Amino acid sequence: MRNALTIPIQPWRPIPAAPSFPVHESKLVPPFERPGMVSRANLLDRLEASAAKPVVAICAPAGYGKTVLAAQWAERDPRPFVWLSIDERDNDSAVLLTYIAVGLDQVEPIDPAVLGALASRGASMAGGVVPRLAAALSAMALPLVVVLDDAHLLHDRHGLDALAVLADHLPEGSQLAVTSRGEPQLPLARWRAEGRLAELGPGDLAMDGQEAGLLLWAAGVAAPDARVAELLRRTEGWPVALYLAALSIKAQHPTDVAEVGFGGQDRLLVDYLRSVLLSRLSPPEVRFLTRTAVLDRLSGPLWDAVLGTGGSAEALESLERANLLVIPLDRQREWYRYHPLFRQLLRGSWSAMSLSRWACSPVARPSGARTMGCTRPRSATRWTPTMPN
Ligand SMILES: Nc1ncnc2c1ncn2[C@@H]1O[C@H](COP(=O)(O)OP(=O)(O)OP(=O)(O)O)[C@@H](O)[C@H]1O
Ligand SMILES: [Mg+2]
């Protein structure tokens, strides 16, 4: 069993002390940028100009392009980036700090005692681990950027306090960047008052006409300027809504894009996705999507283990290729997530009655999931694989 706990991250150097949970590589790399992403040149310039501010907060609602922007920044900035895609499990401060320590260690080997202290569950966080990790961070030779993507998921006070300490120990020229749907529970007010915080909000992240035109064009919709302007007005530059609008327009196979009707209400987008996009899929595809939508993130092997079936990886790849809002989280195409709106739609398609048909018992073959080194998402433990047809 001990072997299963060894961190399977290659080609990074082996960690001297293995943590008591599997460390997922997919959390430590920016999501793979699919073709058709518009370069956010102005925002990247602003991020570059913010280098003197140790903390960067990119806060906007879902779908505003926070993650895409941060990934483009990581591509463009010459400094090494430590990337961490936050999830609920990071609300255990030992987990959160272990990921940060592993990320730092990939940039530059850190004091093995830090990882040792993190691996020993008895160690005091605030009194032992955090000061050690802060010292390791401030001793880094190269300026770096630590990105915490989806920081709104963090609510554990110990972890948040530790992050505040780390932010105060960043070496010269380094930055801690958080992307978050709402304001993260970090001392932003203090950092703002101290002039140490750079901020980007929804108004900054909203696309302008040129970006919207490029987005539509890259998604296969050659819309005239007036049409782009109309879509921009209706979506207010919300990148994901523009993208969904492009999907919607394309699916109608218009001969003249300017003539295509497109509802400006978000509800119409959701209705469109439900009635047109989903209805074009085969029943097994819809069933697969609806079932897997209970998970925050999923991999083919994990889902195979949960259901005791096979072929989930191929199904995911095929759905991704069909541009079905299935987003790869790593270059290996192992982990995926669904676009939040799409996932919301899929989850909404379960009526209360459907849900009540699901028994609340442990999932099948949990040991199978463990032997693959997968961390079973908590939500998966609530459902049985017996699904309504
Ligand atoms: N620069 C861009 N070019 C093209 N499309 C974009 C761009 N930025 C965002 N989008 C569209 O919006 C979608 C959502 O972007 P992203 O995942 O970055 O949003 P987010 O703000 O991180 O959302 P969440 O809060 O859910 O994490 C992308 O999948 C893409 O369809
Ligand atoms: Mg994001």
Would you kindly provide a written description of the structure presented here, covering whatever features stand out?
The protein is globular and about 60 Å long. Helix 1 crosses helix 2 (66-76) and helix 3 (93-107) packs antiparallel against helix 4. Helix 6 (157-167) links the parallel strand 3 and strand 4 (175-180). It folds into three domains: 2-205, P-loop containing nucleotide triphosphate hydrolases (Rossmann fold, 3-Layer(aba) Sandwich); 209-278, no CATH class; 283-382, Arc Repressor Mutant, subunit A (Orthogonal Bundle). The protein is built from 18 helices and eight strands. 44% of the residues lie in helices and 9% in strands. It is an alpha/beta fold and 389 residues long. The strands form two sheets. Strands 2-3-4-1-5 form a five-stranded parallel β-sheet. The protein has a three-stranded antiparallel β-sheet with strand order 6-8-7. It has helices at 41-49, 66-76, 93-107, 112-119, 125-138, 157-167, 188-193, 202-205, 209-218, 225-235, 239-251, 266-277, 283-292, 300-307, 312-321, 340-348, 352-356, 366-371, and strands spanning 55-59, 81-85, 145-149, 175-180, 197-200, 298-299, 326-328, 335-338.
